[in-house]
Amino acid sequence: MPRLLSVALGLLFLLPVPVPAAGSATTPPDLPAGLDVAGMDPTVAPGDNFFLYTNGGWIAQAQIPADRSSTGTWASLFDRTEQRLADLIQRAATHEAPAGTEARLLGDYYRAFMDAGRIEALGLTPLDATRQEIAAIHDRRTLSQYLGSTLRADVDVLNSTQIYTSNVLGLWIAQDLEHPDRYVPFVLQGGLGMPDRGYYLDDSAKMVEIRAAYAAHIEQMLHLLGVPDASNRATQLIALERQIAAVHSTLEDTQDVQKGNNRWRRQDFSRQAPGIDWAVLWQAAHLPNTQQDFIVWQPTAVRGIAALVAQQSIETWKDCLLVHALERSSAVLPQSVGDAHFSFYGKTLNGTPEQRPRWKRAIGSTDQALGDVAGKLYAQQYFSAEAKARVVAMVEHIRDAFKQRIDALEWMSAATKASAKAKLAVIRVGVGYPDAWRDYARLKISPDDAFGNLQRASLFEYRHQLAKLGKPVDRSEWVMEPQTVNAVNLPAMNALNFPAAALQPPFFDPNGDPAQNYGAIGTIIGHEISHSFDDEGAKFDQNGQLRNWWTADDLAHFKAAGDRLAAQFSAYRPFPDLAVNGRQTLSENIADVGGIAASLAAYHAEALQHSADIVAGFNGDQRFFLGFANNWRGKFREQSLRNQVLTNGHAPSEYRASTVRNIDAWYAAFAVKAGETLYLAPAERVPVW
After folding, report:
1. What is the pLDDT of residues 346-394, one digit of tens each?
2. What are the distances in angstroms from CA 303 to CA 246, 297, 597?
């Protein structure tokens, strides 16, 4: 995930409450605010396992729904938000929304997706145009033309807001890292059907097993497409993907902004990455001729993929493109395709036994295609001015606390402190919803064309991105909608987004206990602020420019602290054969430590007079830390947890809850003693900021 594009809060757990009857939406009861004492396990010492102490009672009783790979606190917020969205969208689908309105777009998109009978009757005919385009590929030039016409990248807000592409190459428009007053295209690696290069190259028993299942899946997809000799062609297709995987950058390298900041001019591509006809590709991608500057985030992958375009069989490339096109559209094609897609991506990769009900998939697809339309309705109905004012106030309290922590750093020079505080002062914070909404007037949505709606929505988003080129940078733009249960830091824009859907119990209650609010949503706010000063965010100055504003000694001290924190997390081993990668998760771990410390200081500044108050047997500091650990309440299927460890920039929930071992106040709050599992001697704790 390119860090400049998105530094997100955490893995979003998509885990539902029981499915309403008859495919209709019902609003579940209010989620609990405050402490969930019944969900704790008092038989576990806080100093041995704070995650289980806070959540063990709940874990012992929790059942992962059949259509989910995990469940937990984030899931409960997602489910409530999904039910609210379903109510809004389904009302629009019953023609309560007048024709010609944006709300009607929601209803028509949902109706088309839900019309399974029509989708079955059409079979694979909606894919005919794509099949014809791929069939027409006969040489490197026509292959380059197709790659350009599918040059897309997507924001996956349901997976840590990663910028990714399922196409061979992706294009995303964002701020120029060195000239933050302008936009520039970023070229991204793609072309894989499995989540990461390790799934192709790692020879562990688990990966060998997954590769065998993937081979069977590809063969099945080719059979569905009516391709002869499917078994042999599947073998060749996977061999091509394995070669693509071999040139891909690792996740750790992809997260390093300095390794990603590779500036190429348009004419450089033919020299640096021969094999693709780049002039044809840019023309097919509708890149204006005036656009000369690009940032190639993974240059080794771009060079390697270009070489494979020249070297590998055109017929194998065509099979690869056709299968990937089928996968991308599986949600709006006949059930046989959707079932085959889910069998591998749901069951094999994540261990999910059952596919989500169609109405839930319809809500998700509608929301993805028309996010701002749904978001405007959601914010109007479910996010009050009172709640927004309270969160804005908390943000400022936590910002002030972070400033005071910078001032108190004994190891940091005055010059570096001044630069850090200048950056902190100008962070732009969006709470609840954006200042302006997307205009969808040019997007055609039909109530009887699910496939076409999906394709047109993707093209609409791509054109929206291209339209940024040559225009001033809009620092108020959001990358999330109000109904997104997540939060984000955008280092190059020096901006934070806190969507309305994340600002509800159990994370936030405008009238709730300050200790609980600061422990839950406050640490999330602090986490996002701290991302501006993590190992990647700290490379950007107050203007969003990639520039070193540190003295040499300060930077060396900061990196050494990061090394210590990375080593701490690398010692965690969720499976005997798989450990957490502390370098891969370092940015998130720094943000967690900084977020806890800043939010706790803000809580003390605002509510110190109440910190001794006892609620349910716990004082203020105890409730604060319990609120933090409750954020990471979760239960996972094995395959899902393995997938997260391998492909995600966030450590698993248990280890995020254990971050408190780096905070001195946690030891005092729970009388944690030497000899307990999580105990660290004061010199071994890593506060970073």
Report:
1. 999 999 999 999 999 999 999 999 999 999 999 999 999 999 999 999 9
2. 12, 12, 44
How far is 149 from 139, CA to CA, in rounded Å?
A: 16
The rounded distance, in Å, linking the Cα atoms of 515 and 403 is 21
Return phi, psi of residue 540, to 5°. Answer: -105, 140
564: helix, strand or coil:
helix
* Burial of 254 (C-beta count, 10 Å sphere; 0-12/13-18/19+): buried
The residue among 543, 500, 518 whose CA lies nearest residue 630 is 518
- The continuous run of DSSP H or E covering 154 comes out as strand 154-156
User: Where are the CATH 1.10.1380.10 domain residues in the chain?
Assistant: 124-352
Contact call for residues 249 and 300 (beta carbons, < 8 A): yes
DSSP string, 228-247: SSHHHHHHHHHHHHHHHHHH
For 326-335, the pLDDT digits (tens) are 999 999 999 9
pTM of the prediction?
0.91
Preceding peptide of 29 cis, ω within 30°:
no
With tokens 């500057």, the residue in question is 293
Measured CA to CA in angstroms, residue 453 lies from 4, 85, 365, 444 at distances of: 31, 19, 10, 7
Helix and strand numbers (H, E) in the chain are: 30, 12
The average pLDDT across 661-675 equals 98
CB 342, CB 348: distance < 8 Å: no
| 163 backbone φψ class: left, alpha, beta (φ>0; ψ -120 to 50) | beta
Tokens of 444: 């055609």
The whole-angstrom separation of Cα 159 and Cα 251 is 14
Q: Which CATH superfamily is domain 124-352 in?
A: Neutral endopeptidase , domain2 (1.10.1380.10)
Residue ranges, CATH 3.40.390.10, the chain: 385-436+476-689
Residue 33 predicted with pLDDT over 70: no
Please identify which residue in the block is written with the tokens 């020079």.
Answer: 413
- Rounded to the nearest 10°, the torsion over CA 273, 278, 282, 288 is 90
| Angstrom distance (rounded) from CA 113 to CA 492 | 37
What single-letter amino acid sits at 44? V
What is the rounded CA–CA span in Å between residue 452 and residue 126? Answer: 8
**How far is the C-alpha of 438 from the C-alpha of 477, rounded, in Å?**
10
- Cα 605 to Cα 623: distance, rounded to the nearest angstrom: 16
Q: List beta partners, residue 173.
A: 185
- Type of residue at 335: Q
Asked if the 385-436+476-689 domain carries CATH number 3.10.50.40, the reply is: no
Structure tokens at 150: 């599918």
**Residues 512-549: tens digit of each pLDDT:** 999 999 999 999 999 999 999 999 999 999 999 999 99
